[in-house]
Amino acid sequence: xxxxxxxxxxxxxxxxEDLTVELPEHLVEYIIxxxxxxxxxLQNHVVSKTFREAAIRSRDLDFGRIYSxxxxxxxxxxxxxxxxxxxxxxxxxxxVLILNHIGVEDKVLSWVKTCLSKNIQELTLNFSKSKKVxxxxxxxxxxxxxxxxxxxxxxxxxPNNTPKGLRLLRTLALMKSNLDYGVKAEMIKVVTMAMVMxxxxxxxxxxxxxxxxxxxxxxxxxxxx
Length: 225
Description:
This protein is of the alpha/beta class. It has a domain at 59-194. 46% of the residues lie in helices and 12% in strands. It has helices at residues 5-13, 25-35, 38-44, 49-54, 73-86, 105-117, 181-224; strands at 60-62, 94-98, 122-126, 134-135, 148-152, 154-155, 171-175. The strands form two sheets. The protein has a five-stranded parallel beta sheet. Helix 5 links the parallel strand 1 and strand 2. The longest helix is centred in the last third of the chain and has 44 residues, at 181-224. The chain is flat, with a radius of gyration of 24 Å. It starts with a helix and ends with a helix.
């Protein structure tokens, strides 16, 4: 016999208002850091402690639109610096920075190195606001987790002109970047090879799925027979 409708409603009313308190801490951290973009967090961080904590756990540090609220250069640098200084997440999947780097080169380099130490996958650095190339003392060839590398107005070097570590790189964009032609050519080769290998893996997976589907059809036919 089913429960009366009013009794079911009573059970719902008895649920806690903040259901997140019932979730394990590591699960809350994962949801916040993975699915909340940093721009959304910054807009709502005064609402609750959850949003305040989200900023220093976020894996998606996209500051591409941070100037949209008419912030000054010093305010932007302060916000980004605060997030990086307090960042508690074990990984940063994405970092997008569009900034006038003049006068804050050391800070920018520190942010980039923090991202590299936390297995960055997508990195976009755009210093076109300054109209001056940013000299990055970073060996991008050693970053094995990178899948997207988008650099504008940047200067960097790759030891021995060999980008050995960029095996997962799928997207490469270098605009107004001071880079030896030989290094550019080698990086393009790496991306092309990675795309070929990725396509081959996708083909193998499709073939395996077709084979599995065919085996299932054969078993179904035998059962019906």
